[in-house]
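Retro notes, structure queue

What went well: the backlog is down to a handful. What didn't: a couple of records were mislabeled last round, so from now on we paste the full input next to the output in the thread. Example, using Dipeptidase from Geodia barretti:
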Amino acid sequence: MSSIDLHNEALVIDSHNDTIVGHIRRGNVSISDRETPNRVRHDGTIAYMRGPLDSAASQMDIQINLPKMRQGGVDAAFFAIDVTRAWKNHLSYALDAIGFFKAEVETHADEIIIARTAEDIREAKAAGKLAAILVIENSDGVERSLNILKSLHHLGVRSIGLTHDPTSWAAAGNGETDSGGGLTRFGVQLVKEMNRLGMLVDVSHISERGFWDVLEIAERPVIASHSNCKALCGHPRNLTDEQIKRIAEKRRRHRFDLRDMVH
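Corresponding output:
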């Protein structure tokens, strides 16, 4: 079997992108291409709070849309909503992004679905459609409420990154190296409830102590959606060999970030 045939037959999944917020900030640009706004250009919490990116250079920065996914042979992708910069209300920021993306998927229902189960992904591939997995990056998006977590799950969110570089209500981020903090009491409750709901806990960006806390209590698969090998790239967000081996021993999931830099 040729490498092309293997690629075409395999289920290819991109485990992290920041496409949703990127398209909103570029004027609610459609996921079908990089030029056509489907909605009012400055509508929504994200566009209002952070402002649009209107330059020609920023338009060229968009790396993922439906044609590019098909061209690259990507069958499914984790579409993340990073709420770290929401400042005042992380939930409204997340809901704004979810609403934008759901409207996009409805507009292009013949091309893409929001997958809620693994079977949805397989069925989409068989039908010639793309699959999107909704992700919240930084668990502050649940506003310290397991009730909100359940509501986000009902809306289709299937994975949450516990933190970004700064500390969240759930865990210390990889930027909090001095405190040595790990999971908070709420973080423990969050991991357990995500396990119960069948949501993927994402340990990218978490502190090393937080990483070990998660692996100690998690009863379901954990994902490191965009982390690299620290031995090869000494960025504080990357994982040690011991961490990577532990993920393998626990039969969790680790996805390497193929870019030359991490963010």
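Agreed that this is the format going forward. Reviewer comment attached to the example: Residues 258-263 have pLDDT under 50 and may be disordered.
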